[in-house]
Amino acid sequence: MKASYFKYTLHFKQASGTSRGILTDKETWFIILEKDGKKGIGECGILRGLSADDRPDYEEKLKWVCQNIHLGEQKLWEELIEFPSIQFGIEMAFLSLQSENPFILFPSDFTKSNKSIPINGLIWMGKKDFMKAQIQEKIAQGFSCIKLKIGAIDFDKEMDLLRFIRENFDERTIEIRVDANGAFSENEALNKIHQITGFKLHSIEQPIKKNNTDTMAVLCKKSEIPIVLDEELIGVFSLNEKEALLQKIRPQYIVLKPSFIGGFRGSLEWISLAEKLNIGWWITSALESNIGLNAIAQFTFLQNNLMPQGLGTGSLFTNNFDSPLTVSKGQLWYDKNKDWKIELDDFQ
Questions:
Q1: Is residue 20 pLDDT above 60, yes or no?
Q2: For the whole prediction, is pTM greater than 0.85?
Q3: Is 38 a catalytic site residue?
């Protein structure tokens, strides 16, 4: 078996705002496996400044993986415990190599185009008018669940946006999730959550920065809005550490990003622990290309979670790969009549 890797830079169609700044480009890495004339592809979806494996030796570790591909997927996954995005890429690449179609990793009613996955419509941070226009667009497109990233503009303006939605749509018509990306200070978080309670929100993600577990545990106990852990899960590698974190904080939900938490195996570990503790969960993509998104979507469908999932559509980038993934009325579909329009031989 031969293995190689290469870097690919995705370009945003327009600068996209988060509480950590403005994104214009996003790097990703691909691992290509080749055996007996077949090829498989896996995406290592790293996000600089956020991923646990954003380290100077990242490319060196990719090189090591390719040199030691003979160890096999299980052993490599274990060796890569501190490189969750490469764990994800390795899982994908081996599944792709073993599959009849390198892009159908988990055959199901989803890949047969018989069933879809409900998803939320993501509202990016920006000026109030820009965010309001996105909200109107998502609702017009048929989304029944929208997720707003908050914490970048004036809090009163963000409250105005929530008020605008609720003045036109009740909570049975439109579910609202908000994601603070750790933007609130520990001292102000509970007060700010209290101020937005009247808008009947589904949940709030990561109100304060990670690693403030004492305060987060208090918030989860006192908040009138269900709290979701997101960044808090990043860099928590062992099963014991994962269980201890959930036992201490006791969130209402967790969000699982396979690229950040060790791929499919890592996600299943978190799901098992969450369900044991009666904690809800859903799965989210993390600005992967359509190749990584495709794998995450197929995996997500098999988990039988009926909540709207946080799966992007790949439409953010100018140079993404054409794929069968399409969105209609807030549902992600795999259109089996659409081709990928890429050949793995093109990846050199």
A1: no
A2: yes
A3: no
